[in-house]
Amino acid sequence: MSDCTIAAQVLEKREEPAEYLVDRMIRICRDQLMLPIRQTMERIDCHEICFMESRGHNVYIYTKNREIRIYQKLTDLVDLLPDYFHQCHKSYIVNLEYVVRLERTLLYMADGRMVPVSRTHQAETKEIYENYVNA
């Protein structure tokens, strides 16, 4: 069963009006996210995403070329993303393809930005990053 089929089944079981669900819907199909961005649904290639940051009620998605803001919870996204994404902090999810270095409390991204690693996620982040690099 594809992720798109699962997303459609979840939508069918929800009781909110269809317009609300379409505006809020996030789906993933073949390494692409369908995101509600300014009254439209936009397809984003997951390989283009460097990391995601949660601030307030918004998630900021940083890609190679731009920053996208959506009104969503980070927790709604984390389970939909492919295996090469990892939540290293309550407010951050990184694409391991763009991590060039890991220190105890920081991940250094290919574009020069730094993403914090919380104490809660340090051991798991180290293990997952080492497994990813050595795979």
From TrEMBL:
Ranges for the HTH LytTR-type domain? 33-131
Q: Which SMART domains match?
A: LytTR
Pfam families found in the cross-reference section: LytTR (PF04397)
Cite the source lineage. Bacteria, Bacillati, Bacillota, Clostridia, Lachnospirales
GO: which molecular function terms? DNA binding; phosphorelay response regulator activity
The organism encoding this protein is Anthropogastromicrobium aceti
Give the protein's recorded name.
LytTR family transcriptional regulator
Protein origin, superkingdom: Bacteria
Q: Name the residues that span the membrane.
A: none
